[in-house]
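retry 2 of 3: previous attempt timed out while embedding adenosine-3',5'-cyclic-monophosphate. Reduced batch size to 1 and resubmitted. Inputs unchanged:
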Amino acid sequence: MEQTFAIIKPDAVAKNQIGDILAVTEAAGFKIKAMQMTHMTRKMAEGFYGVHRERPFFGELVEFMTEGPCVLLCLEREDAVAKWRETMGATNPANAAEGTIRKRFAESVGRNCAHGSDSKENAAIELAFFFAGNTLV
Ligand code: CMP
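retry 2 succeeded.
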């Protein structure tokens, strides 16, 4: 079994799409191992997305991720990292496959409703960033 880190982002939370996205997540075979609503501070968002600091969209990304609460998730299934990225669809919803979460719920590449770790190594780092010790079951 593998774990990955996911976020239901502030755009989807504001539109009352948490339940819809969790339903797709569970139907895709993921076990929700930890879940927490958080309104990220600027410091948290800048730290979490630190690898994108030099990108032109960094400011916009931090503004967006701090505009309202989001849902942090630890998801588990076989091949979780790759399967979650497949379930979410492409970063830009315009390129996302039919039926994927981003195709169904995302507005744009910037406001793209969900995040998923891009490797097992980053999943471990991102889970540790948000979920301390015994909050993971
Ligand atoms: P995420 O998977 O959370 O990881 C980095 C985020 O940066 C990505 O989703 C998008 O929300 C955002 N992002 C990537 N490319 C762009 C872009 N061209 N313009 C605005 N935001 C972007």
